[in-house]
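Quick question, first post here. What does this chain look like in 3D?
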Amino acid sequence: MFIKKVILENFRNYKKQEIELDDGINIIYGNNAQGKTNIIEAIFLCSLGKSFRTNKDKELINFEENEANVIIEYEREDRKGFIKSNISDKKSFYINEIKQNKISDIIGKINVIIFTPDNIEIIKDGPQKRRKFLDMMISSLRPNYIHLLNTYNKAIEQRNNYLRQIKFEGKSEDLLEIWDEQLSELSSKIYEYRKKYIEKFSEKIDEIHKKITKSGKLEEELEIRYISNGKNKETFFESLKKSRKIDIKRGFTATGIHRDDFLVYINKRPVSTYGSQGQQRTAVLTLKLTELEIVKEEIGESPILLLDDFMSELDKKRRKSFLESIEGNQVIITCTDNIDNIDNKVKRIYVESGKCLIN
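> Answer (accepted):
Ran it through. Tokens below.
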């Protein structure tokens, strides 16, 4: 799988630009604030239906214009095609000129994995960042998962509204039974998805960690553990039932799949607490490379790697190990300096003020 061409029209600081990419390593370099990350963002948009930088679609449109278009031409083992995103008052997506009814319809057509310096938040920040990382990966492989999550989030919002009505308006608690039944059903399905993919991480993560750190078996052992307050519909329902009084008092649902987490351990100790900065960065790199292997295994092709100012985070040794680990993938790298110590064949694209020049 690889992207052949990116076409931008009034997207961010680009007026009109066509960018042809090689199926190997592509380095997009230039000074800050010239438009390098905008190219990565456009690819991500047509892969997962949203930006990884903003929730405000208007920010994607050139400030002098009212609408923007992004077209990504791609090629897979069994087909060629293109995905178009039109951004105006709302986003619309097209596959080979056919308008799609739902954003989830485009997901899985182009599989990407993105690396950014902010990925360290997966390790260092709270459970929300880790859930988002896991949910995004599962969604890219199982579009039905998006529907489950959206339905669950709407049900949680409705239950929370009703909790406040009970607290402030004296509504009956009996109707909570309806929400709890629905949430328990959805929770058990989401849990099974997450559990399955956490198990896939568990199978691969330590071996991949040792490859990129070149560590021996006794030096560092990496593992991942899933934390959830239920395992099936019945246990989720009981948890919700037990927490009703507290939920009414607080005005929100304190237990459920939306509180799930996973932790990464090095030598049986949480890397978020006890790991050095270097160990935390390496743990993130291991997580993302494990994601790469899982996606590759699931779809039978190598996904596309988007590295947004990520190589600067790696020292020479880790950069070499990393590049060896991703051989065979299309890689699109953004950086301020034209990285010159890469042995592989490289296409270099210089960006200045929303214009691309091929070196």
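Residues 176-213 form the longest helix (38 residues).
Residues 26 and 347 are 5 Å apart (CA to CA).
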